[in-house]
Amino acid sequence: MLMGVKRVYDKRDLTDGKRILVERLWPRGVKKSTQSIDVWMKEVAPSTELRKWFSHEPAKWQRFKEKYFEEIRSNRKVDELISLTRSSDVTLVYSAKDTEHNSAIVLAEFLKEKV
Questions:
Q1: How far, in Å, CA of 49 to CA of 104, rounded?
Q2: Which helix (H) or strand (E) holds 54?
Q3: Contacts of 89 (CB under 8 A, 6+ apart)
Q4: Are the beta carbons of 84 and 77 closer than 8 angstroms?
Q5: Per the confidence metrics, is the pTM higher than 0.85?
Q6: Most buried of 8, 53, 109, 112, CB within 10 angstroms?
């Protein structure tokens, strides 16, 4: 199956498949009734402690990835996400401004190894 990564503020595309919000906090300016998000899986997002520690500082990127991989491996909710990824096309949706250093990219990397 195809898997993409996209900002929540980007327009929905026909190739997106199921759009899964993978943020612990609901994105600012996005209504919960929006049609651009199919599933909200906040449980697979980095812990609040890890998210605050990282604070989107590129210098911490490699260490953030390592710590987040540890969290992902011990997170049972990720199994549900793996199942969704195996059964349909999905797009992991995130709200960070940084398109190169965000948790959705790490999660996608992890999922590609599992699927």
A1: 17
A2: helix 48-54
A3: 1, 2, 3, 15, 16, 17, 18
A4: no
A5: yes
A6: 8
Cα dihedral 61, 41, 21, 14 sign: positive
List, in order, residues 6 or more apart from 9 with CB less than 8 Å away: 27, 29, 30, 95
Return the percent helix, strand and coil in the chain, to nearest 5: 45, 15, 40
Which among 105, 85, 103 has a CA at the least distance from the CA of 5?
105
- Cβ proximity of 5 and 105 under 8 Å: yes
pLDDT digits (tens, 9 = 90+) for 15-65: 999 999 999 999 998 888 877 899 999 999 999 999 999 999 999 999 999
Alpha-carbon distance of 37 to 71, in angstroms, equals 24
Strand 3-7 with 39-40, pairing? unpaired
Q: What is the pLDDT of residues 73-103, one digit of tens each?
A: 999 999 999 999 999 999 999 999 999 999 9
Helix (H, G, I), strand (E, B) or coil at 31: coil
